[in-house]
């Protein structure tokens, strides 16, 4: 699969907003505004307060247990609320189940999944491979973006190509024990390499305008930082 660099032209028009740190990056605000104009914006529960505070309109849908919304507010906006009381899954999982049933998107941009409480952030990041399975089509793509970079799901046994800039920092994370990585186009190449701990695949960098990754024996995450650092 070929992953293009995130831009206004390449970003998905379907956006999910989680209740973490709301992005301030100008590019992400432009992408979000375009989704209001041409696509769909869905909020997880209390994330609606953050999106309104940032000056954006009401989203098309709000999903979750809605425990962070006042009853009076819920009564006023009942037509765009989906309340799911069960506590076996978090609001992000609930939201992706709903959008799979209602919209069947093949590409989704997830914002607000990181930042703020670290336990929520780690839980959200670990969920990304599962969340991508809710998307439709053979070329399903979940991009999780923040002010600092983007996570992509590297599915088991797939060879993916990622657009990059020379010097862009790249990190790889195994999401299961025993995952083996093969890469091409990174400064420190991996060849059937197993990363036993999460930190071991961090802070690599792209050498050219694309790089390739294969992960076998399990799923992985590829993180591409927005920042470009030229070697000294």
TrEMBL record:
Class of this enzyme: transferase
Kinase listed as a keyword: yes
CDD domains attached to this UniProt entry: TPK
Ranges for domain Thiamin pyrophosphokinase-like substrate-binding: 157-223
GO terms assigned for molecular function: ATP binding; kinase activity; thiamine diphosphokinase activity
Transmembrane segments: none
Record's keyword terms, sorted: ATP-binding, Kinase, Nucleotide-binding, Transferase
Domain Thiamin pyrophosphokinase catalytic: 39-130
Keyword Nucleotide-binding annotated: yes
InterPro entries registered for this protein in UniProt: Thi_PPkinase (IPR006282), Thi_PPkinase-like_C (IPR049442), TPK (IPR053149), TPK_catalytic (IPR007371), TPK_catalytic_sf (IPR036759)
Alphabetized Gene3D superfamilies for the sequence: Thiamin pyrophosphokinase, catalytic domain (3.40.50.10240)
EC annotation from Swiss-Prot or TrEMBL: 2.7.6.2
Stored PANTHER family: THIAMINE PYROPHOSPHOKINASE
Protein name per Swiss-Prot or TrEMBL: Thiamine diphosphokinase
Organism: Porphyromonas macacae
Higher taxonomy: Bacteria, Pseudomonadati, Bacteroidota, Bacteroidia, Bacteroidales
């Amino acid at each position: 699969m070929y992953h293009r660099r995130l831009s206004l032209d390449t970003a998905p028009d379907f956006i999910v907003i989680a209740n973490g740190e709301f992005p301030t990056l100008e590019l992400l605000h432009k992408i979000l505004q375009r989704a209001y104009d041409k696509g769909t914006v869905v909020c997880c529960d209390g994330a609606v307060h953050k999106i309104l505070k940032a000056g954006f309109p009401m989203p098309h849908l709000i999903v979750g247990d809605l425990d962070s919304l006042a009853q009076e507010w819920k009564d006023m906006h009942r037509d765009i609320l989906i309340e799911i009381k069960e506590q076996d899954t978090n609001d992000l999982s609930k939201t992706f189940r709903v959008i799979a049933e209602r919209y069947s998107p093949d590409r989704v941009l997830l914002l607000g999944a990181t930042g703020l409480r670290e336990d929520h952030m780690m839980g959200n990041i670990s969920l990304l491979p599962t969340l991508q399975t809710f998307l439709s089509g053979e070329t399903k793509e979940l991009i999780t973006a923040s002010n600092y970079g983007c996570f992509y799901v590297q599915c088991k046994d797939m060879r993916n190509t990622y657009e990059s800039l020379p010097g862009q920092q790249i990190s790889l994370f195994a999401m299961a024990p025993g995952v083996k990585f093969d890469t091409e186009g990174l400064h420190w190449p991996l060849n059937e390499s197993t990363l036993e701990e999460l930190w071991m695949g961090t802070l690599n960098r792209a050498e050219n305008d694309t790089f390739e990754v294969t992960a076998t024996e399990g799923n992985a995450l590829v993180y591409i930082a927005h920042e470009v650092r030229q070697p000294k």
